[in-house]
Write a structure and sequence with these properties.
It is built from three helices and nine strands. By secondary structure, it is α+β, with helices and mostly antiparallel strands. The protein has one domain: Nucleoside Triphosphate Pyrophosphohydrolase. Strands 3, 4, 5, 6, 7, 8 and 9 form a seven-stranded mixed beta sheet that branches. A two-stranded antiparallel ribbon has the order 1-2. The two termini are 29 Å apart.
């Protein structure tokens, strides 16, 4: 069954539903939940994408996925967190919204990011999308992205 997403305008107003495949093929703006994971020591978790993923071998935010038609942002955040790092009990903070468009894997990703921070100290249980994870201090992460941006998706 094809996954349905809401196509939205620049103000995040839902216009109509379409398949995720159609949204990517035509570059239609649709919602995606994204979250950083930060532990009590202030270290940020990033996951290294598996070889079959769009950012293969690069570190990316550990939580990211489409918000289905009729699904709330929080329900999507909880679902994606469980699917991608196997964790259910966490606190979170809304950070903001941003649009992000790129051409990747012969498709146009035109995402309306809904961004959160998740706070927890548990070790993740990674799914097939990630091969490993690493914890970074904020300063280390800034330095590494500046000095070696291709290491990050």
């Amino acid at each position: 069954m094809e996954e349905l997403v809401d196509i939205v305008d620049e103000n995040d107003k839902a216009l109509y539903a379409a398949t995720k495949e159609k949204a990517h093929k035509k570059g239609l703006l649709h919602r995606t939940v994204i979250s950083e994971v930060i532990n009590s020591k202030g270290k940020w978790m990033l996951v290294k994408q598996s070889k079959d993923r769009q950012d293969a071998g690069q570190y990316v935010s550990p939580i990211g996925g489409h918000i289905g038609t009729g699904e709330s942002e929080i329900d999507a955040l909880k679902r994606e967190t469980f699917e991608e790092v196997g964790l259910k009990n966490f606190t979170y903070k809304f950070i903001g919204k941003a649009m992000f468009k790129r051409h990747v894997l012969k498709r146009i990703e035109n995402h309306f990011f809904i961004v959160y921070e998740i706070f927890l100290d548990e070790n993740p249980k990674l799914n097939h999308e990630s091969e490993s994870y690493k914890m970074f201090t904020k300063e280390e992460l800034k330095r590494k992205i500046k000095n070696n941006p291709k290491e990050f998706g």
